[in-house]
Design brief:
CATH class: Alpha Beta
Mean pLDDT: 92
Number of domains: 1
CATH superfamily: Molybdopterin cofactor biosynthesis C (MoaC) domain
Radius of gyration: 18 Å
Largest sheet: 4 strands, antiparallel
Strand order of the largest sheet: 2-3-1-4
Number of strands: 4
Low-confidence stretches: none
Shape: elongated
Strand content: 25-35%
């Protein structure tokens, strides 16, 4: 069935067997943006949202999401993440989320980085929905994916 590794010879869903792969240091970075009204940005900057510190809570939610990606995406492997970093920054049009996830394993962590960005954005949405009805989240993308051999 083409080049899809998550589909078996009968076209059924298949979790890829990575058991024979050599463990490597794997890292992925992702980005996402939520567009907000100017007054919403101001409320976030002033830490005046009723639900609390929007950026800190979004960062924590993103880290938690990275650790739970295999619970959310059916064919993702459970990974032992060694680092999950989520940084939320105010930009002119809203908030930008940058994530970095790292593990030592046999498969990459791009889904974890993308999930972290997505959930951080959704958390911002949830915390701001009472004051901003025009929010748009998106521009979620993988920025970088690397693998490095372990040092002997």
């Amino acid at each position: 069935m083409g080049d899809f590794s998550h589909i078996d010879k009968d076209g059924k869903a298949n979790m890829v067997d990575v058991g024979d792969k050599t463990p490597q240091i794997r890292e992925a970075k992702a980005i996402g943006i939520i567009h907000l009204e100017a007054r919403t940005i101001k409320l976030i900057q002033e830490n005046a949202m009723k639900k609390g510190d929007v950026l800190t809570i979004a960062e924590i939610a993103g880290i938690q999401a990275a650790k739970r990606t295999s619970d959310l995406i059916p064919l993702c492997h459970t990974l032992q993440i060694t680092k999950a970093e989520v940084k939320c920054s105010i930009i002119e049009k809203g908030v930008q989320v940058n994530t970095r996830v790292k593990c030592i394993g046999q498969t990459g962590v791009e889904m974890e980085a993308l999930t972290a960005a997505s959930i951080a954005l959704l958390t911002i949405y949830d915390m701001c929905k009472a004051v901003d009805k025009s929010m748009v989240l998106g521009e979620i993308a993988l920025v970088e994916k690397t693998k490095t051999d372990l040092k002997q």
